[in-house]
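We modelled each protein-ligand pair independently. The example shown here corresponds to the coenzyme A entry; the chain sequence is given first, followed by the ligand as SMILES.
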Amino acid sequence: MLAADVKDARSGSELVKIDKSNIMQLKLLNASILPIHYTPKFYQYVLQNPNCSRLAMWCGKYVGMVCCKVDSNILYIMTLGCLVLYRRKKIGTKLLNFVLDLSKAEKCTAVQLHVQSSNSDAVEFYEKFGFCVKDNIDNYYRYLKPTSALLLERLIVPSNSEQQVIVTSGDGGMDPIEEKLVELSSDK
Ligand SMILES: CC(C)(COP(=O)(O)OP(=O)(O)OC[C@H]1O[C@@H](n2cnc3c(N)ncnc32)[C@H](O)[C@@H]1OP(=O)(O)O)[C@@H](O)C(=O)NCCC(=O)NCCS
């Protein structure tokens, strides 16, 4: 069990695994929170990789979600968010702590995600947790305005004691995991 799976008295939220019984909740949350349509293949991937995703609950209600994938030692956040009414209650923090725990367990070297370049709320949230802008990609989203995306990254350096945050500058290179995501989301 990852540390983030334990109910956190400070945030009042708890994380639960995703299975067939609650996958519809994930679909509803994705549709409510994110502007991208996710394909059946995405949900199939989530069900087949139960350790990489969680739903967040607040007082018995499903309010947030995170779905990741691990590829080539990179943990990629496909979706992470919570309902508008439940924001600034540390639910995003709890979901992100789950991701960071998972990156440690999977011995990943970095955590990455894309956000729409206009999504300053998300950028501020991730920067608070040591993420940096690695790349700025024009025309990443086909159906969104703006179409540009930021690739955010937090490097993970395993040590005997704690993970360290390393600040990097972007190298402009394309990431192989981006291409895999094209299969899972209908907007890229
Ligand atoms: C980004 C998001 C997940 C943050 O979730 P949240 O539960 O509100 O975040 P938390 O309460 O854990 O916030 C932790 C800290 O992040 C920062 N932060 C969070 N939201 C912020 C905002 N809108 N503006 C500035 N800073 C913000 C703050 O420092 C905050 O600490 P504080 O509340 O003590 O000031 C949420 O806004 C969201 O769901 N957005 C829509 C989905 C999305 O854009 N996802 C990202 C792409 S996958």
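The chain has a mean pLDDT of 86.
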